[in-house]
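Researcher: Quick test of sequence recovery. Tokens follow.
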């Protein structure tokens, strides 16, 4: 593991799509809450967190 990638996310970039599991609605909601919290704190990752939250939210189908 690398100090610049403590979660090992660089490995996911090369993972074949078929290996990545779909996210449940509850997991997506949890992730959106986390991203919204990071975005609201105004730190160095806030703009990227806000962008990712918008992108993920746009891909979640409405419950209707």
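Model:
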């Amino acid at each position: 593991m690398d100090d610049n990638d403590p979660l090992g996310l660089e490995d996911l970039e090369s993972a074949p799509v078929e290996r990545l599991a779909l996210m449940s609605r509850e997991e997506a909601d949890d992730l959106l809450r986390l991203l919204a919290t990071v975005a609201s704190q105004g730190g160095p990752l806030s703009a990227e967190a806000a962008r990712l939250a918008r992108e993920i939210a746009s891909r979640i189908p409405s419950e209707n």
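The longest helix spans residues 25-40.
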